[in-house]
Each structure stands twice: as structure tokens, then as C-alpha cells.
Design a protein that fits this description.
6-stranded mixed sheet; binds adenosine-5'-triphosphate
């Protein structure tokens, strides 16, 4: 462990500070008596890409689900751009621009690609969702009439990401979008994420491809057994022992 996570978080975080896209303090979550999150604190500075890494069962997905309001924490506080959200319903959190692409989901498989894109555009938005989606991932253009469930895994994730971006997130949380995909497809998805970050969207990314995540991220948190065990910039991580200690991923 090269860094004390709490010292790092405290040095970078100020409660109620609107300068953070996301601030999480002291989250505790249990599933039926089994504690999944012990004391999770993290910050995502505005416009930054933060990667959350760690082995299976570490609590990464639970952290994202708690932030998006799908799971209620036993204790802890969460702010989005200075607004406290940990007691709000999921739909109200989404209205603040928090968009969550859950692991292996994010599309309607029995609808066409066109319908999936159309449904993702906010009613008031002056955008053409089909043109936007195809501009982002051109391969979707030749798949518009196909059922989303019949797309390849990579195309499904492209559609899921296109749908998420259509909602014009201020904070985009993406859970293992690269799962099971070929490196070239992962590269295309990460390019889209990188472009959105450059445009000012804040990202919290759960990843299994450690090296790819380190390339994408400004800051990295490592979780294990429900707690943050390391935090720093990617260069610290590359030179530290944590990747080999905690991450048995395919990178
Ligand atoms: P993975 O990469 O395998 O998805 P993760 O780091 O995202 O792992 P979580 O899915 O958040 O980890 O799981 C954290 C802990 O909570 C694990 O011990 C897991 O078994 C448990 N857990 C997760 N979801 C549930 C659930 N719905 N009911 C009971 N226990 C759960």
C-alpha cells in the first residue's frame, strides 16, 4: 500500500464542496447481515476520470449501486456537486445527471437498436438520438433495425454507452464495460469515454482491465473486502505493488 487512502481523501475532499462531481464519505452497506462496504470514502473531481479497481467481490458494484440510489447505505454520506443525495430516490439522483451503466446491462434486448436510441434521448433535448448514436459508434448505423439482444457483446456495450451519453450525464458511472470484449472493441469504448471526459463529464469507472484503466484514469482507487485499500494517480499505481497484490485481472 503506497498511500493512506483516508489521508488522500481528506486532503482532497471538503464536505459540501461543489468543486467535486462526487464525494462519498464513510459508506457502510450490508446485504442481509453480510457487510459489503465497510467505510468507503472517495471523491471524483469535476471533469476527472476515476477508476475503481479491485478483485471480485471487493464491493465495486455495490459502491456504484449505492451512489445511484438503487441500494440504501446503513450509514455514510454522498454529495453530487455539493448536493446531498444519499436519502434521495434513484430517479431524483438520475435527474441530477448521475447516469449508471450497470454491469452487463443498460439496453432493452427485445427492442431494436433504433428504439433503444430513441428511448434514451431526454424528451426536451434538441438532439437526433439516432444520428448522435451513429456518430459515436458508426457500426450501430447498419444495425438500427436489429433487436439489441442480437448484437455482438461489443455492439451491445456500444449501444449501452450511446444510450447513457444521450442522457447528457454530468457524472457517468460505468461498471465493467469491457467484460469479455476484444481489446480493439475495448479501445473504441474507452476512446468514447476519454472524449466525453475531455468535454467535461466526470467519470467513475469500474474496470477489470487494469492497464487500460490506468491509461484512462486521472485517479485510481483500489478496493478489497469492502474497503478502499489504496488510492493515487496511475503512475503511483504502476510503480506500486498493488496491481499484483490485489488485481488478478486479464491485463
Ligand atoms: P465483481 O467484480 O465480482 O462484480 P464487486 O467488487 O463489484 O465484484 P460487489 O458485487 O459489490 O463486488 O459485491 C460485494 C460483496 O457483496 C460480495 O461479497 C458479494 O458476494 C456481495 N453481494 C453483492 N450483491 C449481493 C446481493 N444482491 N445479495 C447478497 N450479497 C451480495
Amino acid at each position: 500500500m503506497s498511500t493512506d487512502p483516508h489521508a488522500y481523501v481528506h486532503a482532497h475532499a471538503h464536505a459540501d464542496s461543489p468543486s467535486y462531481a462526487l464525494e462519498v464519505r464513510g459508506l457502510r452497506v450490508s446485504y442481509g447481515g453480510v457487510q459489503a462496504l465497510r467505510d468507503v470514502s472517495l471523491v471524483v473531481p469535476k471533469g476527472a476520470v476515476v477508476a475503481l479497481l479491485g478483485p471480485n467481490g471487493a464491493g465495486k458494484s455495490t459502491t456504484l449501486r449505492t451512489i445511484s440510489g438503487v441500494i440504501r447505505a446503513e450509514s455514510g454520506r454522498i454529495w453530487v456537486e455539493g448536493t446531498r443525495i444519499d436519502r434521495r430516490a434513484a430517479y431524483r439522483i438520475a435527474r441530477l445527471g448521475v447516469v449508471h451503466v450497470p454491469e452487463g446491462r443498460g439496453i432493452f434486448p427485445s427492442l431494436t437498436v433504433r428504439e433503444n436510441l430513441q428511448m434514451a434521448a431526454p424528451a426536451a433535448a434538441a438532439v437526433d438520438p439516432i444520428a448522435e448514436g451513429v456518430a459515436l459508434f458508426p457500426v450501430l448505423g447498419s444495425r438500427l433495425r436489429q433487436l439489441a439482444g442480437s448484437l455482438s457483446g461489443g455492439e451491445q456495450q456500444m449501444l449501452a454507452l450511446a444510450r447513457a451519453l444521450m442522457a447528457q450525464p454530468t457524472l457517468l458511472m460505468v461498471d465493467e464495460i469491457s467484460m469479455g470484449l476484444a481489446p480493439i472493441v475495448v479501445g473504441q469504448l474507452f476512446d468514447a469515454l476519454r472524449a466525453r471526459a475531455a468535454a467535461g463529464v466526470s467519470l467513475l469507472v469500474v474496470e477489470q482491465y487494469v492497464e487500460a484503466a490506468l491509461t484512462l484514469a486521472d485517479y485510481v482507487y483500489v478496493m478489497d473486502k469492502g474497503a478502499i485499500v489504496d488510492v493515487g494517480e496511475p503512475a503511483d499505481m504502476r510503480h506500486g505493488a498493488l496491481a499484483t497484490a490485489y488485481l488478478g485481472g486479464p491485463s
